[in-house]
């Protein structure tokens, strides 16, 4: 059961993510977060020393949550096609519901906090690793085609980052999004005749 401190930390992270998405990473101050959370400076600094520390925890939580979800789905033997469809629908939702702004913030964070390049590279490699786990799972269940897993996982990770980030400044019609997601799906999912 979450403690009061856990709940406060989650409030801080949720609020900071919202502020980062709306104002940009570099424009958000600890004071902004204090004000938005209705916390004293001491209340905020009890949990976090900087916006960088908050951002790193948001990114780490996101990665760990995704990995747990994937592993749980494998244990429950959820069909790989269903998991992959869910992943593609997540990309669509990120484009359509404004989550794309946070993807831009992640890039801004990497630029502003250049000493975090190794962390960001590890985060990307972790995304490729999770996609590889899903792709290998689908290959074992014979739902997916045969392909070089790491190459396809890397391509999909770049695709996701690119299309979601680009959707901030480009108008992507539903037809275009459908077309691009279908290309990814066709690259991976085995046809009935195969």
Describe the fold and architecture.
The protein has 194 residues and is an all-alpha fold. It folds into two domains: 1-49, Orthogonal Bundle (Arc Repressor Mutant, subunit A); 51-188, Tetracycline Repressor, domain 2 (Orthogonal Bundle), CATH 1.10.357. Helices cover 75% and strands 0% of the residues. It is built from nine helices and no strands. The protein has helices at residues 4-23, 30-37, 41-45, 51-75, 80-96, 100-112, 117-140, 149-166, 174-188. Helix 4 (51-75) packs parallel to helix 7 (117-140), helix 5 (80-96) runs parallel beside helix 8 and helix 7 (117-140) crosses helix 8. The longest helix has 25 residues, at 51-75. The N and C termini lie far apart (48 Å). It comes from Geosporobacter ferrireducens. Pfam families: TetR_C_17, TetR_N. GO terms for molecular function: DNA binding. Residues 29-48 bind DNA. This is HTH tetR-type domain-containing protein.
